[in-house]
Amino acid sequence: MTSTVPNAVQHTDGKPPITMFGPDFPYAYDDFLAHPAGIGQIPATEHGAEVAVIGGGLSGVITAYELMKMGLKPVVYEADRIGGRLRTVGFDGCDPSLTAEMGAMRFPPSSTALQHYIDLVGLETRPFPNPLSPATPSTVVDLKGESHYARTIDDLPPVYREVMDAWNTCLEEGADFSDMNRAMRERDVPSIREIWARLVEKLDDQTFYGFLCGSDSFSSFRHREIFGQVGFGTGGWDTDFPNSILEILRVVYTEADDHHRGIVGGSQQLPLRLWDREPRKITHWPLGTSLSSLHGGEPRGAVTRLDRTAGNRITVTDASGDIRSYRAAVFTGQSWLLLSKIACDDALFPIDHWTAMERTHYMESSKLFVPVDRPFWLDKDEVTGRDTMSMTLTDRMTRGTYLLDDGPDKPAVICLSYTWCDDSLKWLPLSPEERMDVMLKSLGEIYPGVDIRKHVIGNPVTVSWENEPYFMGAFKANLPGHYRYQRRLFTHFMQDRLPEDKRGLFLAGDDISWTAGWAEGAVQTALNAVWGVMAQFGGTTDPSNPGPGDVFDEIAPVELPEG
What we know:
alpha/beta
């Protein structure tokens, strides 16, 4: 609903803004990307060598793009479409400018490495209409059948301010919030590591809900209930209550839940433009080379089998039956695919990495969008003077409803419902039309005088990520006790620590990152994997621009004992 940052330090001294490198591995990926020396090179004898990149989501496309620039030949495999969970769709029969973001739709300014690529391909962003944000004309909070209309938090009953204050107090007293936020803004790595090491050891076995209950500021069940249903930032937090509090602290420390922006025209443009982009500076390949041109326009199909074969090669079988072997491969899909959709050789990973992948916990998520003739919600009620309809947070089935327009006289889009976990599973058996009927009924109880249906100009589009065969969930969220598993997966790119017969296959993707569910995590792990592949081919970074593997020992994630 509003910033979770108490007394945030403002940057007037020219220092970089806070960045979502997170407390676990405080490496400045944005500086790495911006450095004029580039992010690394390989020996000329290795130019043109093929590297398999499995998965054409953002992480896979960035991995392939950067490997291509180094002079390697990425071979991208994609089971569905370029983009992964950056999935933008249209509405049949409607103006093509009307789009719906089925996956990632809002990005915080702290996603600084992501922003590098957004700028690189020339995309524009604009403020996203989160609850009570400056980009949102009005917000309605509807709990237990009682609705409150607000433009700022001060328009809500005092209990909502009490809940916000309780959350800020809880963070300050239980998680050294101001000290960590300040250290991250100043990129003070020693302070970040000192604070975080203490908290990881203290809180790894704690749920989000348990963390709240342990604070005197949240002694009231009513306050915890409101916080769960409404929250602060993007909406309610209760679907995260069973997850590790460490996951939540990563979000609030990095301000990942604040000041969001959306990509004009849709987020899928980013991987699509990178796929077609011809780098201005490229090694080995002639100018005019792109990922698209290297692949004849389309990536290879779904991977059905992965094996480790003689010479420690990674052998990839795709859906067409084609079999190819590579000295290196990068897997960027969700890790559960390695347990189910893809037949895998046990020798691909050490056993403790297999255990970590098997224990990965994914969150479900559903959305449904409808196109409408115009942003009718901006019409004023003649009696109250209020907006006809508002961005809506509720404890009803819809949970979060977002209103998206491109001007008062143009067709617009409503995200009728955005839900997670159990709330998402409730929609799973229903068709798009059945979902829309239930959603309109819920919203009709909040806005009894508003006929939303009469403004709908096309069929609804929907997604339940838990039912998508190449995803099986929306994003990773660690449960208590999962820190050690996450550390194994994130650090997998440092393969000099692995047995020689377990090297050559690298993991990437946001579920490998410490910031799963955010596109920034996909970018960061892609760059880790690129560094790992570069090192495997005998490459190096410029001494003036060390990569994530070069500084690993200085900033490695906290290692908890396993005895």
